[in-house]
Every structure is written in structure tokens, then in C-alpha cells.
Amino acid sequence: MGSTWTNWVGNQSFTPSSVAAPRDEEEVVSIVRHAAERGTGVRVAGAGHSFTPVVQTDGTVVDLSALTGVVSTDPLARRATALAGTRIRDFYEPLWRAGLALRNQGDIDTQQIAGAVATGTHGSGTRYTSLSGAVRGMRLVTASGEVRDIGEDQPDLLHAAQVSVGMLGVVTRLDLAVTDAYRLREHVSLRSWDDVMEHWDELVAEHRHFGMFWLPTEESGALYNLDGHGERLQDQCYVKVYDEVGPEVADDDTVGRRVDRCYRIFPMVYDPNFHELEYFVAIERAPEALQAMRELMLASLPDSIYPLEVRTVGSDEAFLSSQHGTDTVVISVSGTPGTDYWAYLRSVDALLARYDARVHWGKLHFLTPERLHELYPRAEDFIAIRRELDPQGMFLNDHLRPLFA
């Protein structure tokens, strides 16, 4: 047996039969073919930032850490090609030197790009899709050991592959749409819930990036390293707004008012002291859903002590995307490791189900096959492509099989 694999927060652990760390695409092909001959499962581990058991297998875990690097940039076409194990933070300097940047990103930048894409990882702002929506092509080693190049000339296959949770094969490289390099001005403020709700449409529409943490108690901020600088935190919203600025605006390192290159503004530091559930509601239903969440959390203390994180994401066409066909508001809640918080999370699931909420594939969720097909109109098309590329289910596991077999 192989060694025990554990994710970054320690809520997922298992012992695969082997761990393989290929140094190039040829070795990936060899690993997959060997597994096919033995009839064993294969799952790919990114940086381990998923809270769900997406990596779990009693077969082979593939570690793509050695397949790293931005291999090409095209400033005219605004494209970049990177190997699958490249971490988000490793895009920064190569893109910037070419006058480019990622279109958008989240506040954690240590994920590998293939894993972030596979699970639908995102930043905030309705003008921009998740990282998956920026994918314009990828190379994939399928269950037969065939290397497939998927591009925009195969739209259904591309939209299946953009958010695949690793079920179509082992991704070895990706082509991303990027944008011209840009700088951001940060504005962080504490605002009341009523003030944020009153100005909701403006906050969503008028800023490149809008996100917030609603803090149910005075102790909530410290759990995510949010500093109120002496101001009251209970029942306040810690609001983050980022907007682009031109070269005439000087860099500034003032806390809460920084101006700098985009990739220096986006990241935050989180302690791995939480387990997260993240659901997505169509943007027009968001204010009602958020009001209901606030009421639920106030009634669920102390299980609900962690901040409620709220962001937005723009629509895309990926079959399993939480933003398929609609802009969304992201609603993230967390549980405390070592406590029995499952009743609280199930109550969140039941509440947000009333708003037809979709899920983040890398975060805790309670999706059933029935809800999958109700909420994701192209789910059956994804499953058909999955069966075609992997008829024996090599890339499924016990977590994914009930939904996608």
C-alpha cells in the first residue's frame, strides 16, 4: 500500500495502493495504461485544497507537481499555456513579463491550475467567469492512454472538460484566456448589513471585484484573520472592493487601501482551521437567500460562528459549472474541525435548496443525483461524454460514482 494522503485541512485522509509522480506526459500515459491493464482506479491530486473526497481512491493517486510551468504566452491573442501542476501563484511573474495577467482569481493562490479548473474555483465579480470559464483548450490522457487535444472546435467536449472533477482523464496542460496586465485599488471597510443590502445592486454592478464577510459574532473575524482595527465586528460586513487603476495612480501599501499589481492584491492568508460548504444561487435571488442565511446563522450559534463569505461570479457554458447559463452569488459557510457541525451544514443545504443552489465540487455538499439533473441542464451530456472517454469508470471513486456513473 502507498502512504496516507491527507488534504490541507486534514478532513480527508486515505491510503491508496500507490502514489505516482510522473515527470512528463509520457509517464502519465504509462501510469494510466498500467492502471487500465490492472483494472484499478486513478485519481489526480492537485494541491489538496478540496474539502470533499474527490481524490480518494484505493488505486493510484497521480501527483502532477513535477508538471509545472507557464510554457508559452501570446500577448496579441491574450493566451497562456501552462502545465497542469502549475500553481496559480506561479503564473504571476511569467504573465506580467509578457504584459499579461490572469483575468481573475480567488484569494488562495497555492492551488494547482488543473485542480482549480476541475472543481470550478473562482474569484469575484460578475464581469468574469471562474478559472474554468477561461479555459480554451487542454491536453488530456484518457482511460485508454490516448492523448487528446481538446479545443474550441469541439465545444461540447471542451465544455465538459472545463469542469470535470477529474472524471475525464489526467489533464497535462491547459490553454487559458488571459488579459492585459492590470493594477488594482483596494477599498476595505466595515459596513452594516442593512447598508450593504441597500447598496447591493451598486456593489455588484459597479466594481471589478466585490466580496464580503458577514461576521455573526465579535469573535468571527479572527477565525479568518480579519482585523477590525478596534471597531465593533459583531453583525458587521467586512467588505472588499477592488477596481482597476491606471499608471497615474501610485502604488500604495496602506492597509485596506493598497494599490498594486493585481496578483499582489488578490491573495489572503487563511489558517487551515475550518471546513467549508459553498453553494451558488442565481444572482437575482441572492438578496432573499442572503437574508435567510443571516437569520439561520443567528439562530445556529455557536455552530455558525465562522463568517459568511459572499462573492459573485459571471456566467459560463461549462456543463458542470455552478455558473452554467447564469451569473451567481457565492454563499460560503464553514464548520469548526473537531465539532459535530453536520446538523448546521444540513440546515444550510436545506435552506439554499429552496433557491435552487448549485455546489462547489471542491467544498462540502449534499448533492443527490436527482438534484444534479434538476440543477445542471447539461448533466446528462457530461455523463455521456464521461462514459465515452472512460467506459470502465477508471476515474470515478466512491464519492463521484453515485452522481456520475
UniProtKB/TrEMBL annotation:
Keyword Oxidoreductase found: yes
PANTHER family the record matches: D-ARABINONO-1,4-LACTONE OXIDASE, L-GULONOLACTONE OXIDASE
Domain FAD-binding PCMH-type: 12-181
GO molecular function: D-arabinono-1,4-lactone oxidase activity; FAD binding
Native organism: Nocardioides oleivorans
Identification of the protein by name: FAD-binding protein
GO cellular component, one term: membrane
Alphabetical keyword list: Oxidoreductase
Record Pfam families: ALO, FAD_binding_4
Keyword Ribonucleoprotein among UniProt keywords: no
